[in-house]
Automatic annotation (TrEMBL):
Residues 3-95 form the FAD dependent oxidoreductase domain. Signal peptide: none annotated. This is FAD-dependent oxidoreductase. InterPro entries: CPE0013-like_sf (IPR036593), DUF1667 (IPR012460), FAD-dep_OxRdtase (IPR006076), FAD/NAD-bd_sf (IPR036188), G3P_Oxidase/Oxidoreductase (IPR052745). Gene3D superfamilies: CPE0013-like, D-Amino Acid Oxidase, subunit A, domain 2, FAD/NAD(P)-binding domain. It comes from Paenibacillus rhizophilus.
Length: 180
């Protein structure tokens, strides 16, 4: 009998197990692969986010910055080489708005899938018609998650007009024919 069972022996699962091992607990880690760190951890690029767009007044921002500091401390404790590298976003001239926007108001095209009724497939890929400010993405996803679509649907068809009052629509990324 164990006090705690951790599922997944990637970087997160093993770090949690290591931290919990400091207490009087019976812990086991379960991993579906033959070796540790073979899932998402193996596919990771090894970049530790520096928090350049993290807002310290938001929980995500505070946790991002705290996690970065904890990572550096863990590397020192385990004698693992870690070289922090800051990010450089370059704008070549006044016309290059990307660098300016990425620092001051980062935004993204958002994609997901929604259920589709009566179609030849069960899910319909959708996206925002324009980039959304990053702080609105969670609310966008919450609203789009409630969307139900009936086939047929044309590629580029507007499914929600002006979501969140932004002037940005939710559009289909694929055409789906009606099931015969």
């Amino acid at each position: 009998m164990y006090d705690i069972v951790i599922i997944g022996a990637g970087v997160v699962g093993t770090a949690v197990a290591r931290e919990l091992s400091k207490y009087q607990l019976r812990i086991t880690v379960l991993e579906k692969n033959n070796e540790i760190a073979c899932g998402a951890t193996k596919a990771n690029s090894g970049i530790v986010y520096n928090g350049h767009t993290a807002r310290p007044d938001k929980l995500k921002g505070r946790l991002t910055l705290q996690g970065r500091q904890m990572f550096e401390a863990l590397c020192r404790e385990l004698d693992v080489a870690f070289k922090p590298i800051d990010m450089l976003i370059v704008g070549f001239d006044d016309e290059d708005g990307y660098a300016h926007d990425e620092i001051l108001c980062p935004s993204r095209i958002v994609t997901t899938t929604v259920p589709i009724e009566g179609g030849v497939c069960k899910r319909l890929p959708v996206r925002s018609s324009e980039p959304l400010p990053k702080e609105w993405i969670g609310e966008w996803m919450r609203l789009v998650k409630e969307l139900r679509v009936k086939a047929p649907v044309r590629v580029g068809e507007i499914l929600i007009v002006g979501i969140l009052g932004t002037g940005t629509d939710v559009i289909s990324s694929k055409g789906v024919a009606q099931d015969q």
